[in-house]
Specification:
This protein is 49% helix and 9% strand. Helix 1 crosses helix 7. The chain is an alpha+beta fold and 194 residues long. The chain folds into 2 domains: 85 residues, Glutaredoxin, CATH 3.40.30.10; 101 residues, Up-down Bundle (Glutathione S-transferase Yfyf (Class Pi), Chain A, domain 2), CATH 1.20.1050. Strand 2 and strand 3 form a beta hairpin. It has a 5-stranded mixed sheet, with helices on one face. The structure holds glutathione. The site of glutathione has 10 residues, from loops.
């Protein structure tokens, strides 16, 4: 399989999850502005959506959308899934919150200008991280074992640090804990982030 990604983009979550899973995968960066892969291919022929992540499976099928890609990784590598009768549902609940609320709230931060919008986004993000922290009672979101949801949350926490958005101490600790994991360090090194 092959992961199309861009350094420090949300696709880092999928990159980390694959690395944590011990999966065998190829990877290729994408120039998101030019919609071109590092090998010069038109990225729109890989994914018409034109954004990362895109994961091309060994079957030749292409998966997009963080929620779907991370859910697929958890289904293939159960060590990264959430156990229990409601485990998958709870995992999807968190992935959806991260994707449709937190991830989306960062949007103004990536574009120049829009100071009022940025200020509003900061307030929204701080409240969203508080809400996640309120439910965090263990080392990771779902207990003592990391799941794909932590991988996505970790990227949001890295973005928070980059934009100086305050997060509660428990999430700072999670960011540090995740950042020290060997697989996370490998993925971040591969993306030129450490
Ligand atoms: N709905 C998508 C959004 C993915 C997304 O926003 N990717 C960004 C990087 S974090 C991207 O590739 N942006 C480039 C673009 O939209 O042109 C998902 O959840 O996977």
């Amino acid at each position: 399989m092959k992961l199309y990604y861009s350094p420090f983009a949300c696709s880092l979550a999928d990159h980390i999850a694959l690395q944590e899973a011990g999966a065998s995968f190829e990877r290729e960066t994408v120039d998101l502005e030019m919609k071109q892969t590092a090998s010069g291919r038109d990225f729109l022929t890989v994914s018409a959506k034109g954004y990362v992540p895109a994961l091309v499976l060994d079957s030749g099928e292409t998966l997009t959308e963080n929620i779907a890609v991370l859910d697929w990784i958890a289904s293939q590598y159960p060590a990264l899934a959430v156990a229990g009768p409601l485990g998958r549902t709870r995992m999807l609940e968190v992935l959806s919150y991260i994707s449709s609320e937190i991830h989306r709230s960062f949007k103004p931060m990536w574009h120049p200008g829009g100071d009022a919008e940025k200020a509003k986004a900061r307030t929204t993000l701080a409240a969203q991280f508080e809400l996640v922290a309120d439910g965090l009672k263990t080392d990771y979101l779902f207990g003592d074992q990391l799941s794909v949801a932590d991988c996505y949350l970790f990227v949001m926490l890295l973005w928070a640090a980059r934009f100086h958005i305050p997060v509660p101490a428990s999430l700072e600790a999670l960011r540090t804990r995740m950042g020290a994991r060997p697989a996370v360090r490998i993925a971040m090194t591969d993306e030129g982030l450490v």
